[in-house]
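During the second year of the project, the team shifted from modelling isolated chains to modelling whole assemblies. The rationale, set out in the original proposal, was that interfaces cannot be judged from single-chain predictions alone. As a representative example for this report, we include one of the complexes processed in the last quarter. Its constituent sequences, exactly as entered into the pipeline, are reproduced here:
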Amino acid sequence: MRKVKILIGTLILLLSFTGIAFVSEKNKGESVKLEEPQEVIYYESEQFGGPEIVYVKPVRGVLFSHKKHVGELGFPCESCHNSLFEMQALKSQENPDFKMEALYQGKYCGACHNGQAAFASNTKCATCHIGVKGLKEYMRKLASKEKK
Amino acid sequence: MFKGIKDWLLNLKNEGVEKVPDETKREFLKIGLIITGVFAGGSLFSVISRVAEGLASSEELHKSYPYKPHYSMVFKIDRCIDCELCMEACRKTNHVPDYGWRTMILRRYDESALDQKTMFMPILCNHCNNPPCVRACPTKATYKDKKTGIVRMAYDKCIGCKTCMVACPYNVRYFNEEKHAVDKCDFCWESRLSKGITITACAEACPAGVRIFGDLSDPGSEVYKLVHQLAKPVWVLKPETGAKPNVFYTIS
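Output from the structure prediction step:
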């Protein structure tokens, strides 16, 4: 009887140890994933027509918000797609001319953000540039959503 | 002579204030104001005049440049986008570990703000003319470079007491485990300036032209032109500490 008790005890101990090891390993993996900033495509809600897109090129942490442009301002898809941007998210950041210079010439966001239709691209920098801190917030949001 | 006064005072009838003319009431109030004014007014006036001076001009902040070159940095704060390329460049150039930092971007977020809701603010060592950290160091491990005014570290003298970290009003020092000494920004003196490069790694890495580095004692330099003008506001952080920092903030 005593031997059985010892056996069960050791078994429980072993199980709990592996459990703790498993959990800590899992947590480790997540924190590593968050360290290196990566671009984010985050779907806030289907009704906004598109995701929140955070670009990382040429600089990290630039937000385009469908929630703002489609949900709040009510622009139809055709105002940007496919003349200014392709339907595939983050496609334009692969283009070599995807820089502020191009925006000043009326390309990409600069088509509207020219100081007339919307605020000029060379003003209010931190409105779109949410930075590495903003990017990491979106990465965290995405990670917690994926977990669910 | 004074014996009768007590009785006379006690026997005085209360005349009430109804019969006192306005003129007399005013006179009485003035006496009170003058008396309190003598005590409080002096200090109040000095506070007010100081505020007025501080807001009107930053001359007090840059009256004399005791160093040659007098290294300084000016931030065009509204252009900062927190891409953190400066931090990355600093880490690589000066071998800063993950847990520490020599320069950093602070963020201010206000949901209730109109329009733009975020503001970024880069910070680094202010290389003060009157550095509290240097005064606090018991071993003179941190010192003001006599030629350039850069606040530097003698790592072999540092005993790791961290008093300087507490003394620094700008929180720009960290304890480096590998060096077993406190580490901080030295305007890239060891890694770049002493080798003939004229710009810090962070200023070179900034894609938005936020960080402008140069010699404040040279009237031809960009930092001199940015600080010596009144068209745009120029300010320093925590001027009340009297540290006389050499890092200035302005807008583009």
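Chain A has two domains: 1-35, 40-147. The interface with chain B takes residues 58-62, 124-127, 129-134 of chain A (CB under 8 Å).
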